[in-house]
Amino acid sequence: MEYRFLGCSGLQVSVLSFGGWVPKGSGHGEDVVHECMRTAYEAGINCFDTAETYMDGESERIFGRAIKKFGWERKSLVVSTKIYWSGSGPNEFGLSRKHIIEGAKASLERLGLEYVDLIFAHRPDDLTPMEEVVRAFNWVIEKGWAFYWGTSEWSAEQITDAHRIAEKLGLIGPLMEQP
Asked: What pTM, to 2 d.p., does this model score?
């Protein structure tokens, strides 16, 4: 397997990753997902990607059970999750400080992990001030719940804005973008 540095960090990720998006009712049982994850891991894939919204959080639970079942050392994995949608209540979606922090904590509980390597803002949130988003993801990093944060389906202008604010505040800007 080939590995590359993620952005301008020292973190090495496999050029292929294993994604955990499986639609409900697809007929893919947990045993099948675990077998696919095992095959990917044995092929050298170290990056496993999921999100709080995939199968209403069940994807994270399945990933966590696989990690435990196979006894994989946490240091051998790069685990990512994404925050934006977790429910229909007014504070259960978006990128408010409240949702980022509560969403990250809930994801860790579902995964059964102390931290994720990467945490993504799953979509941009035009209703939440960018400074709040940047500060909240930095809080998650400072707590040790994630090592890096990034974006998913953000525009170049939004990413630039996040970097500008992070630099102004002496904080960490987004490292990666998942289109």
From this structure: 0.95
